[in-house]
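Hi there. Long-time user, first ticket. I'm pasting a complex I've been working with (about 641 residues overall). I'd like to know whether the download I got is complete or cut off, because the file seemed smaller than I expected. Thanks.
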Amino acid sequence: MHIHRRLPVLLGSLLATATALGGPAADDLKALKGTVRVDGSSTVFPIMEAVAEEFAKIAPHIKVPVGVSGTGGGFKRFCAGETQISNASRPISPSEVALAAEHKVEFIELPIAYDALSIVVNPKNDWMKQVTIEHLRSIFSSGGAKRWSEIDPTWPDRPMRVFSPGTDSGTFDYFKEAVIGKDGSMRADLSVSEDDNVLVLGVQGDKDAIGFFGLAYFEENKGKLRAVPVVGPEGAPVMPENSTVNDGTYPLSRPLFLYANAKSAATPETAAFVDFTLAKVAGFVDEVGYVALPANLLEAAHATWKARTTGTRFVKDGKKVDGSMMPASK
Amino acid sequence: MSAGRAIPIARRLRHDRMLLIACLSATTLAVAVLSALLISVFIQGLSSLDWHFLSSYASRKAANAGILAPLMGTLWVCAICGLIAVPLGVATALYLEEYAPRTRLRSLVQLNIANLSGVPSIVYGILGLAAFARCFGAISTDDPWTLGSPDSLFFLQLPFGRGVLAGGLTLALVVLPIMIIAAQEALRTVPKSLRHAALALGSTRWQVVWKVTLPAALPTMMTGAILSMSRAIGEAAPLLVIGGVLLLFSVPENLMSDFTVLPLQIYNWAGRPQDDFHKIAAGAIIVQLVLLLLFNSVALFIRHKLQRPLQ
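Hi, the file is complete. Here it is re-exported in full:
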């Protein structure tokens, strides 16, 4: 890096060089000023918390306020141009793409990690050895089972308490879509909290509780809760683990995204923040208990960012499509 | 109980004692609950209090975490709130008590102020977001009118955006009804005879207000100011709507800066399942209590300075 210091070049070109080399130039970041507003998913918050904390150490004059409005709430602000970065635990939806277009906001879509939903019960629950998607549907859909024995006669005849992340969270959206389907609805008597930690406390304190949330929270609270293996399409129960998420056998896993405002991506502060995030995210993902992207996917995300390729792979002509996680590279 | 029939003295004394016991137990219960709360907070939080806790930013590791950003945010927002709400509240109370003719319109205004003090604060948050942060959409938030450089202390922009000014103004809305009602009560405690005496000496209304009524009422008004600021410092909901920031690694440097406040930080930490975060949440609660006492002692000081017998 000593070559950089000798060259009296503009900050912008310095950053471009640094980016090309795959890492931010530490000395120049210290001088950078500006604000990079981040908002969005509470699921991605632990990653962003780590990124923002470490970024503040190397770029102390760039302000990075991080909000937790949920994926939908974050997109509402992002698509109106209020934030530079939006965290999401699902791809952007057609209506959000339309909102962004209305405000002339272009964005760059970058996958940063995998998340897996874990189905959790109290450690004292010794009857639920595995669970099928059908079981989950009869537990969580509207008019669902009130007692454990209604689902499986061998299970105890006791009332069930059902916990769920808040309806604003991407976790909720994802669970509903994966388990109940688009047209069904979740039961009304759920104990709901926008804060995953409240769910941990709830399930921890009640033998008859069942709930779901991200694998990260389960990993952090392994002693307090038990994850139930989910029966996959092949008929075998699969534990939520890094390996089963990465090879796609665990049925309840999903990618996490970072959306960057394309106009802001041209500013040095936002560029530096995203550079830093992409360079360090794999380490932080491990730390907070998510599943890192496979190498080829992370490479592809780097390429998308470097080329500043805008748009989403999940919406086409105003309709939702099953996009590949593999981002387009130029 | 028919008139004229004497109640035995023993029974009257028994009633007297019963009321005393009822009031005493109510007081004891209230104090006991409060002290249980305070003691548990202090036991949990005292160990986390040190200079590092006050002077560093948040961290994902509880041991490294500090409250610098929310502490400064609370100071900025509450200072703005106080500077706006107290003068406005006092002026409104003066108008309503000293000037406004006793018409039906005045009763309507009075009724509305009383009702507004009961409106949930999140409603003010939404109003503040629309009015202050976004100027009702009259000016695009993408392309605000700006004055000065964003790095300078005097940077201003329209709409205000989600900065400390919008937060402070919103809090001022929340506490304004309380402040107005308290200031009105204070003005009512000033004897009519004082005003009449001053008017009889040929003072104008302004002179009566400035030289007689206001000085006499100000100490009691300070009690209202204390109540208002106590409410303001504890508010989380409207500021979550306005700022929406839970994590910040900078302190406000002008009226437009992003901010977070202590109640939001406490909420964020207390909601995590790890015990270490509960401890630092308790530490932050202690800091907030101390801050509240400091604010209030300023008001008490003014009250003490101004208190004069009414002769």
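A couple of notes from our side: Chain B touches chain A through 24 residues (CB under 8 Å). DSSP finds eleven helices and three strands in chain B.
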